[in-house]
Amino acid sequence: MDLHTFFMAHPAAALAFSGGADSSYLLYAAKKCGADVKAYYVKTAFQPAFELRDARELAASAGASMTVIDLDVLGDGIIAQNPPDRCYFCKKAIAGAIAGRAAQDGYSVIIDGTNASDDAGDRAGTRAIREMGVLSPLRECGLTKDAIRALSKEAGLKTWDKPAYSCLATRIPAGRAITAELLQKVEKAEDMLFSMGFTDFRVRVYGGAARLQLPARQYAAALEKRGEILACLKKHFDAVLLDLEAR
After folding, report:
1. 179-243 CATH
2. Most exposed of 17, 29, 116, 223 (fewest Cβ within 10 Å)?
3. Which residues belong to CATH 3.40.50.620 in the chain?
């Protein structure tokens, strides 16, 4: 099956839209296939501000309308407690929020950007969207991450080489309670590193310290900017550590 065949069978759908490479290509392909697809962005404390800005811009460039849904994930005690399967409960809450709003707008089919490279297995998030009846056209059509990037480049989408960006909650080790204050510290630290020219990295919480995970090619730059990094990140963390296991 290809995407044209999928959208022939599902001519109207609500898309869980993040503005990443996968969901952006899926939105582009859906519009190209003539499908009636509306984007839904769920705004939570787990998404940095730049993701919403990107999503708005990308939806507009695709000629699609986008609805922003505010969801208080930290108001859910299970999610805030951050158990190992937190993603299951979070994904379920997000899918439920989209389904409820989409139904009001007349959409009964929910799709997402899961691709054929994503490990299906029994991952918590995958299990949640499967239970919620969310369809994953890219996976169903056998489109891998590399294929999506190539197709996106061919289509002129600026997301073709956009690094994958997991939610801020993934920076906090399982079992440690997630608070708005802790998430804000991580977001500010990552914003500072972005402003210094670093890309495709993570700032993970390690006790009271920030543990930096950078691509190996950026180690030299990190050492050159050591003083600047320390000055910025120690505003929010007691210590700054460099993880030598490269991303």
Report:
1. 3.30.70
2. 223
3. 3-161
How many residues does this entry show for the chain? Answer: 247
Tokens 């440690």 locate to 176
pTM: 0.93
Reported as a pLDDT band with limits 50, 70 and 90, residue 245 is: confident
Q: Tell me the pLDDT band of 191, cut-offs 50, 70 and 90.
A: very high
Return residue ranges of the chain for CATH 3.30.70: 179-243
**136 token code pair:** 């994953």
Distance of CA 239 to the CA centre of its chain: 27
Higher-confidence residue of 119 and 144: namely 144
**pLDDT tens-digit profile of 26-56?**
999 999 999 999 999 999 999 999 999 999 9
Give me the residue label for tokens 């969901």. Answer: 23
DSSP 8-state code for residue 183: H
pLDDT at 118: 80
Q: How many CB atoms lie within 10 A of CB 116?
A: 17
CATH 3.90.25.10 fits 3-161, yes or no: no
Q: Within 13 Å and on the Cβ side, how many CA atoms surround 147? A: 12
